[in-house]
Write a structure and sequence with these properties.
Chain C: It holds the Pfam family BPD_transp_1. The complex is a heterotrimer of chains A (about 375), B (about 325) and C (about 300). With about 375 residues, chain A is α/β, with parallel strands linked by helices. Helix content of chain A is about 30%, strand content about 20%. Chain B is built from 11 helices and 12 strands. In chain B, strand 9 and strand 10 form a beta hairpin. Classes of the chains: A alpha/beta (about 375), B alpha/beta (about 325), C mainly alpha (about 300).
Chain lengths: ~375, ~325, ~300
């Protein structure tokens, strides 16, 4: 794997991912199954999560971000690479050792209803991690404390998941994740299943808990605005690999990768004044199949800045770009030329602002 | 006032669901709005706001048993609610078409895309054979599906989510409808695909002059697309305005609260979010007062005395006794 | 889609209700369901008849009160003295049908319980471990399923010799694969669900995950299946007895056996076929009605 720059090793890194691959075999055959290929869900990812920080992992469905999150937690087995947590190689753990290590790494799920056993009441949900790790003491009191931490009344303990609203269920899921006072929480789309007005409550709760409990987060989301809000460092994933990684502010101020640019220009902003003046970069077509990713740069089949050389036969690695902080790294051969404007996007991909003619304001009768 | 007659005039629409156990549910209650030719109207709300039920009522797609629909839905001069079934079927698809959230369940999984598109053409435009196929291929290419003649032979599962939604839009457009109703058409799609679909809808509205009713929970989509926006809460419209007015000066505490709670991509980092407390399920029944009152930071005692009326202000309709002042940014 | 919105609007009302769980709700729905109630009534009726048989039946099952009145061409039908008529040996048909309820219910319940126990053990093993264990168990189950059920039951019962027990075991065995498959499918579906992943990520051990989460959430359809199996077991037991594989003891009347004995007199005494036949149909119907409605009450897919 590529040698890490000193910028990240100087920091106190809690979790370090090196060259992780998750390939799911595709089998075929009637009697004797043979492997005929592999879905390369995650295909060589390096990522550092500093202690106490929030790292955001964004990408669209099928890019492998959820699989990467689960591979970090050893909920799926990586087919290659290492995940080092606080100095321990998680891949070297098995059985009881791995089970005990899970105390330190917890997960918050996208669908709060599906992640709770419908037959378990909240008391049982929240005391289960305590039981599993032989935590002594008064579980009832601890459950009440947890409920209080996530803003639910103590009376919630005797209720069942279906009696709560979506936002309340997600609070229960978060309470379960913090029950063992873990160091790292992987939150996989923690707000995307919630109503708009509820999302901010959960985002604020996650931030508040981080301050109070000193948590480290990996927040996986497709919503750039949410990640922009919550994350210190953002990694952008496309088709199994990271294409750009940077401190949040740098990434949003100067996205260097064409995919990041397109992604950001696609996010609608609830402000007509902004919407009417934005230039959009539209991507052509769909995500290629991760079972048969394109050669060279994974993104070149849809890239509006594609060049005739290098893009289709040489896979770019994450690298720094002059004039940007060390921590801002991008996997594009032409990042400098694109930034300097020497390479322009294909005209067909650019939608210039075109404010729709405003009808008379009295249109509402 | 413009002189254009409204294409669709929804007057005092109400939908109640009778349930075997428990009280009846007023899913939609006294909703009125108009859609002019070529206009894009947004219905915005969260789950339980009644926005989808409104669209289904307009399309005559609600189940008949246990559902009572009241009010009027005037399309041209016909009241769609009292129209005989076969007349309604003719209007649906020919004059009014609908695009749903989940393209997979809206397409027949065992019939090739081409057959499904040509079917619509045959039914409403009386095209036959090669002519119908050629028209279908043209439609697919119109909505940005590459290699349309090959795609026509494929089944829905062979298409990606974005392509399926395009195919559905193609079917909706098959008869050049004058009104297109899109119910969360991009919610199941990725953001870059969403941008493609929104762009496509914009173009289509411009090119064909059709009116569009966009139903969504996403304020961002509304901000860039809709001329007029109606914000719904618990079955009623709480605020209506042109999009510029609405976003620049939200007056209803719910509208303002939504805007303040959504993280913005262009906001400075660390800008705090102001969530609306409670959840959309903590509602008061409208008969007893403002449904939003239990979550409202501007609540007055009078708010829970009875239902607040929908008042008409210049360029705006508002259902609130204690609205945000015109300069106030967001409720703290 | 519209319905989910309605659900959402009514959710707040649910919140005000006292805490309850899914089983309670299923039970509540079931209590209001007329079909389920009729099914339950029929079952309760047969259970009562079986228990109270000595009080209900006017004669012992092997008594021959009408011995003198019987000739092969004249078997008296229903009368005031003998409600269901007499059989070919001059026994009171009503008393025999009443006592027959004991055998049918016994065979049905015991055979279903054994079959369920066997099926559950295999299913839990396959569903909990997956992989090779699963593959081996499922191949065995496939082989069992590939042999027609009744044929296999006949073979097993014949092998074990004609007796009540061999009928029960034969029926139990042919039902094992049904339960095994059902449970395994349910468990595999649950295994991939988020709350199981959540339990793994918390660090819960395998056994509590299987027994505490996966199994309880997989068991409902098995209970439904058991109710339905009871119905078929009663019919299958009658079938095996009809073929002469059940108990030959004349003191223990059995509906299937009674039907078999009737064959020769069908033209002259149709009532001998009618009453046991109706008894089988009604008993099976009771379990089927309850089972079908139980499925609807428990299965979330039928809700709303």
């Amino acid at each position: 794997m590529t040698e890490q720059t000193s910028a990240s090793s100087a920091e106190d890194v809690l979790l370090s991912v090196r060259g992780v691959e998750v390939h799911f075999p595709i089998r075929s055959g009637v009697l004797v199954e043979r492997q005929v290929g592999a879905v390369k869900a995650v295909d060589g990812v390096d990522l550092d999560i500093p202690r106490g920080a929030t790292v955001g992992l964004v990408g669209e469905s099928g890019c492998g971000k959820s699989t990467l999150g689960r591979a970090i937690l050893r909920l799926v087995e990586p087919t290659a690479g290492t995940v080092t947590f606080d100095g321990t190689d998680l891949g070297s753990l098995a059985g009881e050792e791995l089970r005990r290590m899970r105390r330190q790494l917890q997960m918050v799920f996208q669908d709060p209803m599906a992640s709770l056993d419908p037959r378990q009441n909240v008391q049982s949900v929240l005391s289960e991690p305590l039981r599993a790790h032989g935590v002594g003491g008064d579980h009832t009191a601890r459950v009440r404390e947890l409920l209080d931490l996530v803003g639910l009344p103590a009376s919630a303990a005797n209720r069942y998941p279906h009696e709560f609203s979506g936002g309340q269920r997600q609070r229960i899921g978060i309470a379960r994740a913090i029950a063992l006072e873990p160091q790292l929480i992987v939150a996989d789309e923690p707000v995307s299943a919630l109503d708009v007005s509820i999302q901010a409550q959960v985002v604020n709760l996650l931030e508040e808990l981080q301050d109070r409990l000193g948590l480290t987060y990996l927040v996986i989301a497709h919503d750039l605005a949410v990640v922009r809000h919550i994350a210190d460092v953002v990694a952008v994933m496309y088709l199994g690999g990271l294409v750009e990684q940077a401190p949040s502010d740098d990434l949003y101020a100067t996205p260097l990768h064409p995919y990041t640019k397109a992604l950001m220009s696609a996010v609608p902003i609830p402000d007509p004044a902004v919407e009417d003046t934005r230039q959009r970069i539209l991507l052509q077509g769909d995500l290629p199949s991760p079972a048969d990713p394109p050669p060279g740069c994974r993104f070149h089949t849809r890239c509006p800045f594609r060049q005739p050389t290098r893009c289709d036969d040489e896979r770019p690695a994450l690298r720094t770009v002059e004039g940007h902080p060390q921590a801002h790294r991008v996997a594009c051969h032409w990042a400098e030329d694109i930034e300097a404007g020497r390479i322009q996007p294909a005209a067909s991909a650019v939608i210039e602002p075109d404010p729709a003619p405003d009808p008379d304001p009295a249109a509402t009768t | 006032m413009t002189t254009t007659e409204p294409l669709l005039d929804v007057r005092d629409l109400s939908v109640t669901f009778a349930r075997k156990s428990g009280p009846t549910v007023h899913a939609v209650d006294g909703v009125s709005f108009t859609v002019r030719p070529g206009e894009t109207v947004g219905l915005v709300g969260e789950s339980g706001s009644g926005k989808s039920v409104t669209s289904l009522a307009v399309m005559g797609l609600l189940p008949r048993r246990g559902v009572r629909v009241g009010g009027q839905v005037l399309f041209d001069t016909d009241d769609l609610l009292t129209l005989p079934r076969d007349r309604m079927r003719d209007i649906r698809g020919r004059d009014i078409a609908m695009v749903f959230q989940d393209p997979m369940s809206s397409l027949n999984p065992v019939v090739p895309i081409g057959v499904q598109v040509t079917e619509v053409l045959e039914r409403h435009q009386r095209l036959r054979g090669d002519k119908a196929s050629a028209a279908a291929a043209e439609l697919l290419s119109r909505v940005g599906i590459p290699d349309p003649t090959r795609r026509l032979k494929e089944y829905p599962h062979q298409l990606s989510g974005g392509m399926r939604q395009r195919a559905l839009i193609a079917m909706a457009l098959a008869c050049q409808p004058r009104l297109l109703i899109a119910d969360e058409p991009t919610t199941a799609l990725d953001v870059t695909i969403q941008a493609q679909i929104i762009e496509l809808l914009k173009e289509l509205v411009q090119d064909t002059g059709a009116a569009l009713v966009m139903i969504t929970h996403d304020l961002g989509i509304v901000a860039g697309l809709c001329d007029t926006v109606h914000v719904m809460y618990s079955g009623r419209i709480v605020e209506s305005a042109g999009r510029r007015e609405l976003f620049a000066e939200p007056r209803h505490p719910y509208t303002g609260g939504l805007l303040a709670s959504v993280p913005r991509l262009d906001a400075p980092r660390g800008a705090p979010l102001h969530p609306i407390p409670g959840s959309p399920t903590d509602v008061l029944r409208w008969e007893r007062g403002c449904a939003f009152a239990p979550r409202c930071p501007n609540r007055l005692d009078a708010c829970t005395d009875g239902p607040p009326p929908l008042e008409t202000l210049p360029g705006r309709r508002l259902r609130c006794l204690n609205p945000l002042s015109e300069t106030e940014e967001v409720p703290a | 889609m519209s319905l989910s919105e309605i659900e959402a609007t009514t959710e707040s009302e649910q919140l005000e209700q006292p805490a309850g769980n899914l089983r309670k709700e299923a039970w509540k729905r079931l209590r209001r369901d007329p079909v389920a109630l009729v099914g339950f009534g029929l079952i309760a009726f047969f259970v009562l008849v079986a228990i109270l048989a000595p009080l209900i039946a006017p004669y012992a099952p092997d008594a021959q009160p009408g011995r003198g009145m019987i000739t092969p061409t004249n078997i008296p039908g229903p009368s005031a003295d003998h409600w269901f008529g007499l059989d070919a040996s001059g026994r009171d048909e009503f008393s025999r049908v009443v006592y027959g309820a004991r055998q049918s219910l016994l065979v049905g319940v015991v055979a279903t319980l054994i079959g369920m126990a066997g099926g559950l053990s295999l299913g839990v093993l396959a569903g909990a471990f997956g992989g090779k264990v699963d593959a081996v168990i499922m191949r065995i189950v496939d082989v069992m399923l590939s042999i027609p059920g009744l044929l296999m039951a006949i073979a097993i019962a014949a092998l074990l010799g004609a007796s009540l027990w061999s009928v029960m075991i034969a029926i139990a065995i042919i039902n094992i694969p049904v339960f095994a498959r059902l449970l395994r499918g349910q468990m595999l579906a649950q295994r991939g669900s988020d709350y199981v992943v959540a339990a793994v990520s918390i660090g819960v051990r395998r056994r509590p995950i299987v027994l505490g989460h996966i199994l309880p959430n997989s068991i409902s359809p098995v209970i439904v299946q058991a109710t339905l199996t009871l119905a078929t077991a009663i019919i299958e037991a009658a079938g095996l007895s009809f073929l002469g594989l059940g108990s030959a003891d004349p003191r223990v009347p059995e509906w299937g056996r009674m039907l078999a004995d009737t064959q020769r007199y069908l033209a002259s005494a149709p009532h001998l076929a009618f009453f046991p036949g109706i008894a089988i149909v009604i008993a099976a119907l009771g379990f089927t009605m309850l089972g079908e409605r139980l499925r609807e009450a428990i299965d979330p897919k039928y809700r709303r």
